Structure prediction request, 317 residues.
Amino acid sequence: MQKHKETGWWSVRRRFGRTATVLGLLTSVACTSAQAPASIAGAGSGPGKPDEVAVATWNMCGVRQWSCERTGSPKDKFQQLRDLIGDSGVRVLLLQEVCSDDLSSSALRLGPEWQSVFEPYANVDAAGTRTAVKCTGQGRGDAGFALLAASRLTDAEVIPTEQPKVGLHRGILCARVPAQGVRVCNAHISLRESDGEHPEWDFRDDQLSSLFAAAATDDRTVVGGDFNAAPPVGDRNRSAWIWPSEAYTTFRECEQKGTSRTGRPTQDGTKIDYLFTALPRTGCDVVDTEASDHRPLVIRVSRPAEASPTPDVSTSR
Prediction:
């Protein structure tokens, strides 16, 4: 066991080393372009410069049984996606708490160039049995996290991370976006006390370390998502220890200025959604929305020199 000293108390958790739990198989939920309608007017034609790439992270709160009943319908959430694309010029999205069928429907409605990769959440019981989380209410399909891009996604992979022995498994999903010249990693980090048998275990430090280790393999990577943790600042933040040293140093956060570690709130008055990269940053926005309990975060980075400035429209999805 490893003890972590925090302000005024101890947190004891078990470490599993490299025998981390790997989530289920990657699922592509985009349909063939032959089935896709014409692109929605304005989708992907928003503001931005040819030498920039805009990437967004957004917890859509689409799993209605997770206290999301009053955060808008799938139609409202699709409208927010379309606004991010049209108004903010976003070309790549990191999505959490999205329903698989709603994601595939959104990709089709956005146009034939839009592709997605989906990874489901799973509940694991004491016997080790994995059960998919189904969306309820107006949401359709399995609940999970995903990547959505206005071009081809390649080399998709789930990054091995430590997960609760009993409880909800989230995870990290990475892929390359050749048309934009970037690689992206979407992380949905576990909540504190998320293990049903060992609530004193905290997995966030190991999961964040795995995320930044994955980012370090390619200096064109943008990583982000819902980290379920406040920034590592303030005397009252007893979880500052979970953050790896690479965060805010080797990699800079969307809102970071100088040595600051703060940022505008993204949920309930607190910042828990992040975007980090080693690429030069050219802009950062927090977008208001009534379609989720999270606010989308948008980062703009300088497009790597080898990237094509035009969408990579593929005939196969």
Notes: Helices lie at 74-88, 100-110, 204-215. The domain at 52-302 is CATH 3.60.10.10 (Deoxyribonuclease I; Chain A). Residues 1-25, 29-45, 313-317 have pLDDT under 50 and may be disordered. Residues 223 and 271 are 16 Å apart (CA to CA).
